[in-house]
Amino acid sequence: MAAEKLTMANALNRALRDAMRADDTVLMFGEDVGPLGGVFRITDGLTAEFGEQRCFDTPLAESGILGMAIGMAMNGMRPVVEMQFDAFAYPAFEQLVSHAAKMRNRTRGRVGVPLVIRVPYAGGIGGVEHHCDSSEAYYAHTPGLHVVAPSDPADAYGLLRKAIESPDPVLFLEPKKLYFSRSEADLTLPVPPIGTAVVRRPGTDATLIAYGPAVPVALEAAEAAAQEGRSLQVVDLRSIVPFDDETVCAAVRSTGRAVVVAEAAGFASVSSEVVARVTERCFHSLHAPIRRVTGFDIPYPPPKLEHVHLPSVDRILDTVDDLQWEDS
Amino acid sequence: MAAEKLTMANALNRALRDAMRADDTVLMFGEDVGPLGGVFRITDGLTAEFGEQRCFDTPLAESGILGMAIGMAMNGMRPVVEMQFDAFAYPAFEQLVSHAAKMRNRTRGRVGVPLVIRVPYAGGIGGVEHHCDSSEAYYAHTPGLHVVAPSDPADAYGLLRKAIESPDPVLFLEPKKLYFSRSEADLTLPVPPIGTAVVRRPGTDATLIAYGPAVPVALEAAEAAAQEGRSLQVVDLRSIVPFDDETVCAAVRSTGRAVVVAEAAGFASVSSEVVARVTERCFHSLHAPIRRVTGFDIPYPPPKLEHVHLPSVDRILDTVDDLQWEDS
Amino acid sequence: MTRDAALLLPSTEPVTLIDPDGNPVHVGQDMPDPQALVHAYAALIAARRFNDQANALVRQGRLAVYPSSHGQEACQVACVQVLDPGDWLFPTYRDSAAIVARGVDPVQALTLLRGDWHSGYDPLATRVAPQATPLATHLLHAVGVAHAARLRGEPTVVMAVCGDGATSEGDFHEALNFAAVFRTPVVFFIQNNEYAISVPLARQTAAPSLAHKGIGYGVPGARVDGNDVAALLSVLGAAVDRARAGDGPQLVEAHTYRVQPHTNADDPGRYRSADEVTPWLARDPITRVETYLRGRGLLDDDTIAGYGVDAEKLAETMRAGLGEDTVADYRDLFAHVYAEPTPQLREQQALVADELSREEAR
Amino acid sequence: MTRDAALLLPSTEPVTLIDPDGNPVHVGQDMPDPQALVHAYAALIAARRFNDQANALVRQGRLAVYPSSHGQEACQVACVQVLDPGDWLFPTYRDSAAIVARGVDPVQALTLLRGDWHSGYDPLATRVAPQATPLATHLLHAVGVAHAARLRGEPTVVMAVCGDGATSEGDFHEALNFAAVFRTPVVFFIQNNEYAISVPLARQTAAPSLAHKGIGYGVPGARVDGNDVAALLSVLGAAVDRARAGDGPQLVEAHTYRVQPHTNADDPGRYRSADEVTPWLARDPITRVETYLRGRGLLDDDTIAGYGVDAEKLAETMRAGLGEDTVADYRDLFAHVYAEPTPQLREQQALVADELSREEAR
Ligand SMILES: Cc1ncc(C[n+]2csc(CCOP(=O)(O)OP(=O)(O)O)c2C)c(N)n1
Ligand SMILES: Cc1ncc(C[n+]2csc(CCOP(=O)(O)OP(=O)(O)O)c2C)c(N)n1
Ligand SMILES: [Mg+2]
Ligand SMILES: [Mg+2]
Question: Which positions fall inside the Dehydrogenase E1 component domain (chains C, D) (predicted)?
Answer without folding.
Answer: 47-302
